[in-house]
Specification:
Layout lengths: L2 H9 L2 H4 L7 E2 L1 E4 L3 E2 L4 E2 L10 E3 L7 E8 L13 E10 L7 E4 L13 E9 L24 H7 L7 E7 L5 H7 L8
Parallel strand pairs: 1-10, 4-10
Antiparallel strand pairs: 2-3, 2-5, 6-7, 6-9, 7-8, 9-10
């Protein structure tokens, strides 16, 4: 972990808004078109609408949990839905996300109009054992059950400890967001 990594997690207030301490290492996240997530860089919703490739240093026989969460819903100044989780996968063998258990299907960034930049935080936790989660399975066509989530409380519930890897980007409204809201059955100013 570099000093820059720790500083970025603290300067962008990922610590303490999402986690109490920065993760141990940087998560490698690549969206189609070779767009990299890089400690708070700005990416547009149209660029992150599709599920990214996510890699971390994993033990071959280890099981992991991956989460993507937005602590700024509906805005950073009034985060009444903090956190709104966009993706949640447990029981991932190594880095094989597609072989993990999908609790919440991926939904890209969707910051409402005039809410400024939102932080989109990716965290990976190493599991001590296979999880038997009680959470409802969520598809990518609804917002129900995604708001007022806390990855830190989820990690406490399942005894995951602190994240082993993380990264984040920022995004603000663009022309793709209304399309996403229609997919989710929401009005443009919702979420």
């Amino acid at each position: 972990m570099t000093a820059e990594f720790v500083r970025d997690f603290k300067n962008h207030k990922i610590v303490p808004d999402v986690v109490p301490v920065p993760p141990e290492s940087v998560l490698q996240i690549t969206y189609p078109g070779e767009l990299q997530v890089n400690l708070g860089n700005i990416l547009m919703p149209r660029e992150v609408k599709d599920e990214p490739v996510v890699k971390w240093t994993a033990e071959p026989n280890g099981l992991y949990t991956l989460c993507m969460t937005d602590p700024d819903a509906p805005s950073r100044t009034a985060p009444k839905f903090r956190e709104w989780h966009h993706w949640l996968v447990v029981n991932i063998p190594g880095c094989a996300i597609d072989r993990g258990e999908l609790l919440s299907e991926y939904i890209g960034a969707g910051p409402p109009k005039k809410t400024g930049l939102h932080r989109y935080v990716f965290l990976v936790y190493k599991q001590n054992e296979r999880l038997n989660c009680t959470e409802k399975r969520l598809n990518n066509r609804s917002t129900q059950g995604r708001g007022k989530f806390s990855i830190h409380k989820f990690s406490e519930k399942y005894n995951l400890g602190l994240p082993v890897a993380g990264n984040f980007f920022q995004a603000q409204f663009d022309e793709y967001v209304p399309k996403l809201f229609r997919q989710l059955g929401q009005f443009q100013n919702a979420i």
